[in-house]
Amino acid sequence: MRLILTWLGIPVAAAGLLAAWPMTSPSALAPSVTTAPAASIAARTDATVAAPVALTADELTKASATITALVDADLTARKLRPDAALTDEQFLRRVFLDLIGRIPTIDEATAFLSDPAADRRAKMVDRLIGSAGWNSHQFTWWADLLRAQTRLQDRYPGQAYLDWIKDSLRANKAYDAMVREMLSASGAALARGNGATGFYVRDAGMALDNLSTTAQAFLGTSIGCAQCHNHPYDKWTRHDYFAMAAFTNGTEAKRGEPRDKEEREVMRSVKDAPPEVRNALRQLGESVRLEVTDKQSVMIPLPADYQYQDAKPGQKIGAHTLFGESPTVAAGANPRFSYAAWLTSPENPRFTTVIANRMWKKLMGVGLIEPVDQLKDDTVAANPALMEFLTRLMISVKYDLRAFQRVVVLSNAYQRIAMTSEPAMGEPTGFPGPRLRRLTAEQLWDSVLTLTVPDVDTRTGATAEGLFQLYDDNYDKSAAELLKVAEDLADKRTELKALRTQIDDLNKRANAATPADAKALREQLKPLQETRRDLEAEVEPMRYKQGPNAKKSAKVGADGKGV
């Protein structure tokens, strides 16, 4: 505990108050915070974190009050006053935008504002968190964090990855479990339930870039500079970088190699095939045969241009974490499992703090630590005691992001009007209220749809079902059999191309015709368009099947943004 408090700049004298949470009364915490000096966030290396225990409803309520007490104590120390409380109308708009990404409908607003219950705000928060709208809005946040798209590197299918994220949110999978699954994922990318492999497919052929992204997203640590030279603004050396990269050095996301001599001969023969056949076969290979594999290596060679005296160019070095106690990898074991366990452990000095800070920023508009992805040993939290509390809260709720967001949203600190003045450059905000923010593009779009589309939250977007079926039908086929599938696809694509030309011609004629002739031409179009849709679904492996309500809604499409 002493190490954790020192790490976050909280006086050790306050240890008893924080350690007693959540049973300590929130008001008792305030005096201990007023004397907390600014301090650096140094890496914890041996702090012991108690096993998390799920909190009761009463404890979650006390946690919300504790957040407010810690915010108010900090405001008092800065001689600032909290902003006024939100009206019910303001609260309703805010929680809808923050939790499900849209404004409320007239019916939703009327029902809430006419509810005489004293706990109507808590009831509304409970209704929104975990709803279809919440899942959709959270997915947008996750897709941005993970750079997830329907096309990965504009080459590999990414919808299975998106589906895995969405399914994880619907199931309320814990944050640490999601990250652990991504870091340790392997096998066929399009096998049902294995969409977490998309985390590596996203950076196929760029293992070092994937490492930099992993550290920045989940550890809030920018180490990319150390890929080429010692970090100019942090302590990481190029040797540190490659030692960390050794954990995933043997991991590859790629199209499967020919399985035997016969397959190699078939692949050589394809060089003389028509381009349509080659293209179809390539697409099949980059989907059906796409997989994440491991070489079980815990060593990595330093690059040929390695320029420092602590090692030689080309020298192989072993895997070692950037900070903390580096895990031991047993002989023959997959080093990624050890790597994933270390990174997502509650004892990791940065993992929990980073997600707690990201969630705080998501709801309050600015993080207690900014930038959220550039933590250093001398980084100072705007409110060290609050940052420590949120970190411990995240562990206590077992990385349940629904429970964590509920605690923050039900705090009085959240339910205040937005800050009306901009803090001075470099000065902590003190959080008299959340930061005033403009709507995101997704919030604006979904709010407009709320005015025009009934039950907008239930509208579903693209799914990977077509890709899963493609994999199920073809994963065990030989190269010769896949070549036959590719030839059939190429023939049907040629037919589809001709059909599209015919439809375009009829549309042009209908647009230029008299009303009577145009009606007759459009009648001719109907069966052709139906045939076109059938052919598209059959011959386009990269076209994703839509959800059951997709044709009725403009909310989502092939961009995968809907849930």
Task: Write structural notes for this entry.
The chain has 563 residues and is mostly helical. 48% of the residues lie in helices and 4% in strands. It has 23 helices and seven strands. It has helices spanning 2-8, 15-19, 30-34, 57-77, 88-100, 106-113, 120-128, 132-146, 159-170, 175-184, 198-201, 207-218, 238-245, 261-269, 275-285, 335-343, 351-364, 384-396, 401-409, 441-450, 465-474, 479-512, 515-539, and strands spanning 151-152, 156-157, 187-188, 252-255, 290-293, 299-301, 316-318. A three-stranded antiparallel sheet has the order 3-5-4, with no helix packed on it. The protein has a two-stranded antiparallel ribbon with strand order 1-2. Helix 4 packs antiparallel against helix 18 and helix 17 packs across helix 18 (384-396). The longest helix is centred in the C-terminal third of the chain and has 34 residues, at 479-512. It is flat and about 75 Å long.
Give a short overview:
48% of the residues lie in helices and 4% in strands.
Physical arrangement of strands within the biggest beta sheet:
3-5-4
Mean pLDDT: 85
Low-confidence residue ranges: 1-52, 544-562
State the major sheet.
Answer: 3 strands, antiparallel
Shape: flat
Q: What's the β-strand tally?
A: 7
- Measure the end-to-end span: 41 Å
- The percent range for strand residues is under 5%
Number of helical stretches of at least 4 residues? 23
Q: Could you state the order of secondary-structure elements as H and E? A: HHHHHHHHEEHHEHHHEHHEEEHHHHHHHH
The portion of residues assigned to helices is 40-55%
Radius of gyration over all CA atoms, rounded: 27 Å
Structure class: mainly alpha
